Amino acid sequence: MILPIRAFGDPVLRKKSKEISKDHPELKTFIENMFETMADANGIGLAAPQVGLDIRVFVVDLSPLADDEDYEEIAEELKTFKKVLINPTILEETGELWKFNEGCLSIPDIREDVARHETITIEYFDEKFKKHTETFSDMRARVIQHEYDHIEGILFTDHLSSLKKKMIKGKLVKISQGDVNVNYKMRFPK
């Protein structure tokens, strides 16, 4: 089932999410719905707060990037990079900070350069509640950091300079009021 994506201004996007247990109700169905919702919106990552739940769950699927010539060197890894991360904790962020133009399904039509560490080590549970500790670099690390921010109540726009924030303020207000054209299901703050 495709879920409505919460728009900028929705309070759930600013909440620090809670950990869940392996017997969380309807978890398997919820994860399936998240992947379906993300694919419908042409996204590569989606966090539970973006669909209205303040729980520490997010999904990533980087296979759409595998055909992009910018990622030729890691195309094979991207083809199969589809993960569910439950109750994740970033243990370490290392390497150079590198800027990349990011966007967000909850903040459509706004893209800005965000600096993030090139490598992370993260501990998480998968959909079967098997514990993993893994290190990721490049685009994989960036997308995970972006989604991890969501479960911490942080949006990519929070990483921008004061000047950039002032420049996009009007667009953010319009998004929160529902004045935006998207080709996916959204829910706007009341």
TrEMBL record:
One GO biological process term: translation
Identification of the protein by name: Peptide deformylase
Superkingdom in the source lineage: Bacteria
Swiss-Prot/TrEMBL cofactor(s): Fe(2+)
Biological role: Removes the formyl group from the N-terminal Met of newly synthesized proteins. Requires at least a dipeptide for an efficient rate of reaction. N-terminal L-methionine is a prerequisite for activity but the enzyme has broad specificity at other positions.
UniProt-listed Enzyme Commission number(s): 3.5.1.88
Cofactor-binding details, from the entry: Binds 1 Fe(2+) ion.
SUPFAM superfamilies registered for this protein in UniProt: Peptide deformylase
Residue positions binding Fe cation: 104, 146, 150
GO MF term set: metal ion binding; peptide deformylase activity
Reactions that this protein is recorded to catalyse: N-terminal N-formyl-L-methionyl-[peptide] + H2O = N-terminal L-methionyl-[peptide] + formate
InterPro entries: Peptide_deformylase, Peptide_deformylase_sf
Family to which the UniProt record says this protein belongs: Belongs to the polypeptide deformylase family.
Keyword field: Hydrolase, Iron, Metal-binding, Protein biosynthesis
Positions annotated as active site in the UniProt record: 147
